[in-house]
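Hey,
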Amino acid sequence: MLGADPARGGRDHRARVGLMLQEGGIDLRARPAESIRQYAAFHADPLDPDGLLDELGLRSVAATPYRRLSGGERQRLGFALALVGRPEVLVLDEPTAGMDPEARAVVRARIATERGTGTAILVTSHELADVERIADRIAILVAGRIVASGTPAEPAAGLRPRLRFRLDAALDAEALGSLSTALGSEVGVLDGSRYEVAGTEPTPRLVAALAAWCETAGRLIVESRAIGGTLEDVYLELTGAKGSEG
C-alpha cells in the first residue's frame, strides 16, 4: 500500500491512510466534536473539524457521548475520523450501514469527491446498490475467495436481460395472474409493488402489452427498466451456486 509494506510502515506512512471500521475503535465516552478535533491534531494539514461536523450532519450531536449516538450517527463519525487527515488511501468498512437515505446520499457524494481528487478508496459493503453507484471496480467474495471481478457492469452482463417494473400499488393474486396472461409470461413479485417478467427478454411489444394492461386495470407504471441483472442478482446466484457445491 502506497509503495510500502503496511506492517512495516512508520507513523508517516500510517498518516496517509484513513480507516473507517464498521464498529468499535471509539471510546464510548467520546463526543463527536472532541473526537474529530483530536484526530485532526494527529495530522499536519487536517480538514476543518467544524466543516466535517456540518457536512456529515453531526452538528446537533456534537456534544453527545458516543454511547448515546444512533447507529447511523456512529457511522458518520467514523467516516469523519477517516477523512479528517486528508488521506491518500481510504479504507471503508460498510460506510453507509445504518444510515437514513439523506445521510447515505451525503456519504456517497463525499466518497465521489474523494475519488475525484485522486484518493484511492477500498470499500467493503453488503449495500450493493451503493457499490454500483460509487465503485470503479468490484470484487465479489464468497467463502473468502474472489469469484467475480471487474467494473460494476461486467459481472452482471452475463445474466439474461429482463424487464422489471414498479406499480403505484401491489397486485393481488388475481390481478397478478391476469397480468401474466396478458404478457404471455409469468410475472414474479420482487417486493411490495415491484415485479419482474420472467422467461422472456424485454421487447417493445412486451412493454406495450404491460402499458395496455395497466391502462385497462387503472394501474400506473411508476418505474420500468430493462436490465441485464444487478450486483445483487449476481451475488445471490454466486452464493447459491457455492452453497450447492458444499
